[in-house]
Each structure stands twice: as C-alpha cells, then as structure tokens.
Amino acid sequence: MSDLVKIPVTVITGFLGAGKTTLVRHLLQNPQGKRLAVVVNEFGDVGVDGEILKSCALPDCPEENIVELANGCICCTVADDFIPTIEGLMALSPRPDHILIETSGLALPKPLLKAFDWPAIRSRITVDGVIAVADAEAVAAGRFAPDVERVDAQRQADDSIDHETPLSEVFEDQIACADIVLLTKPDLAGVEGLAAARAVIAAEAPRPLPVVEVAEGVVDPRVILGLGAAAEDDLAARPSHHDGMEDHDHEDFDSVVIDIPEQADPAALAAKVERLARELNILRVKGYAAVAGKPMRLLLQAVGSRVRTQFDRPWEPGEARRGRLVVIAEHDDIDEAAIRAVLAG
C-alpha cells in the first residue's frame, strides 16, 4: 500500500459480551488477502481478548500486528496510548491494509472517532466504518434500551430519577455512532426476540441502519469492511449523550481481578460465576482457570448469568497453572470481599 493512501480502520463497538472478539477472530481467519492489524482495548488488568486473538494469528495478521491496550479506555488515553499505537502499526513493514479496533464494552465510540482528527494521524488514516455488535436476546429484553415513555412516567412518579441508566446510555451511544449493526446469538433470541431487538435498534438509531443477524461471529467480511464511511468527517450525524462535554469517565463501572486456585469441576466454577450475577449484580466475568487433571487451560466468559466455558489451549511447559478472573460491574455493585466469598464457596 502506498504511504499516500489512507489506511482504513474499522471500529468494532458493542456491549459487554456481545461477541466482538468472536467477530474479530472470524475476520482474522478470513482476511481475503488483506494484511490486517488489530488493536484490542480491555477493561481490567487481565488481557483475555488480546490473548485469544493472538492465539489465532495468521500470516496475514502475525502476532506483532495484534496490540492490546489494557490501561483504560482508549478514548480516554488518546495521547498516551492510542496515537502511539496507531503510529506503530502504520510503521510496520509490510504496512497493514486494514486496522481493526475492538473497543472495551464500556467505551463510548464517538470520542474515539474524534481522535482520528489528531494531526499526527489524520492525513494517513480514515475510519472505514463503525460496527455495533449487539446481543439480540439482551436488546430484546430491554436491558440496555429502556422505553422512553416508561422512563418518563417513572420520572414523574419519583423525583430522584433524572437520567437514563449508564448501561442504556452506553448502548444508545454505540448504536447512534454505528454504520451497521450485527445482532448476535440469534438462536437464543428466537424469532420474536430478533424482531423486538430490531425494533429497539430502529427506535434508537438517528438514521436508518442495516441490521445483520450473525451467529458465532460468522459474517462475510465484504459486508462490514470497505464501507468507506469516513466516519471522522461525519460526527454530526452520530449524536451522543456526551456531546458538548470535554471529556468523560467510566466511574459508573469498576472491575476487580481475582486469582483462583486450581478447580476440580468446571461446572461448579460456572455455577459460582452464575451466582455472582444473580446475587451481586455482576455484569461480566472473563478469564482463565486450571482444572485438576486437565492439560488444557479453561477459558471462561460470562454475560450476566449466562456462562460459557471451553478449553482453549494446553498449559505451556513451566507455566504456572493458576486461574485469574476479571469481574466487572457498576461501581456501587463491586464488593470484592463478597465476590471472593462466592468464588471460594
């Protein structure tokens, strides 16, 4: 690629556990001849998503093309982390044909788009498109997009309710910024759930958006890459709850990292993680565990009370067989002692 040609970037946003990493992994495995690079933004100290992606590195996207940023939301650390990372990827030889950015589930996409106007990179890179990945079952249940009339009625009945919940604002900002929405886990939502999710997205979107149902991250790359949206020049059409604010924070959310001993039974561990959601309002858990008698490492991903486990790779020779979990919740719901007690029970 000529240095005079802007490198296209696809921003992949979406709520916690919606399936962003699964989508990126599919794109890495189906690059269609493009040299890809990936930036993964984690929330918490354990780089689960980055390591998953590096484990499937291919010649068209070698491991050095996959960069993980775990020091906070990239839209809040533009100068310190994001710009140097993008400059480093553009300096690779051979130069990437396309860069994928997987944001944290708590990231607001619009501040990230504004970063592409920084003088250091604006003449060399463009946002090809913003892809919002949405869990169809969760959207259909209304957990992230409350009914406006119902909220207004609650406001009238209770003077203390004067704003949307943080989760709904994150979801709405992601949809408002998107060029296309991918509805994941369609099997769990069912026909009625998918219809309800589409209706919610249509109501929240500031303009008509294409919505595509996707299972296990499988989508033709031609559908979501090469959109040519130049989203950094189209910010006015992508409204945000935070427009007019100089910056934002994520103080509504918090995370803790819990070391766990070798486990006797994966099902018992999954049951404990399910209890975290049910009893302590935990939003998301992800990480690894060692299972007694098993040579493979156990990968655990949970969204609310829905827990998935799979053995992802063998433990390396000399590698400590330890487990670590990132636990994410709204700030007021993080009780580390209670979390540890459930996991130790």
Overall description:
There is one protein chain. The chain has 345 residues and is an alpha/beta fold. The protein has 2 domains: 7-237, Rossmann fold (3-Layer(aba) Sandwich), CATH 3.40.50; 253-344, Hypothetical Protein Yjia, Chain: A,domain 2. 32% of the residues lie in helices and 24% in strands. The protein has helices spanning 20-29, 48-54, 78-90, 109-115, 136-140, 148-157, 166-177, 186-204, 221-224, 266-280, 336-344; strands spanning 7-14, 36-41, 66-69, 98-102, 125-135, 180-184, 211-214, 253-260, 284-290, 296-303, 306-314, 323-330. The strands form 2 sheets. The chain has a 7-stranded parallel β-sheet, sandwiched between helices. The radius of gyration is 20 Å and the shape is globular.
Tertiary shape: globular
Relative helix content: 25-40%
End-to-end gap: 56 Å
According to CATH, the fold-level topology of the largest domain is: Rossmann fold
Q: How many helix segments?
A: 11
C-alpha Rg (nearest Å): 20 Å
The CATH homologous superfamily of the largest domain is named: P-loop containing nucleotide triphosphate hydrolases
Instruction: State the strand order across the main sheet.
Output: 3-2-4-1-5-6-7
What's the total count of β strands? 12
**Beta-strand percentage range:** 15-25%
Structural class: alpha/beta
